[in-house]
Amino acid sequence: MRNFLEKMTIFMQGRYGMDTLNGFLLILSMIIWTFNIFVFNRLAHYIIMVVQMLLIGWVVFRALSRNITMRSAENRAFRKAYDPAKKWVQLTYQRIRERKNYRYLKCPVCKAQLRVRNVKGKHNVRCPRCKSEFEKKI
Ligand SMILES: [Zn+2]
Questions:
Q1: What's the gap in Å between 105 CA and the centre of ligand 1?
Q2: Gap between the Cα atoms of 94 and 43, Å rounded
């Protein structure tokens, strides 16, 4: 096993390896694979299978690529879209989880997300980012 790992390490030297984009593509291909279990039309099933194989092929190609500059540029471009989307999903999940204790507001001046305790009444809210104050009724 150790020998195999050593060989793997040598093989991967100078190659790109895994990144956020590859991880995303792998998860996407797994989702497609799971979805395809429920596709009973033969032609559609094969087409989806080919798409999924192409995705995995792309991941392998990127992981083994020696053109590290190009692969990093792809990953950077991908993360420009992916990071805000991930942040939004995390925030939405947090909002749902804490909906009993907290309310989420948007600062009217700088549009920052603010979290206030879910207590009935009038609140004076002070935005920690732009220091502006506003009133909010809950
Ligand atoms: Zn603000």
A1: 10
A2: 41
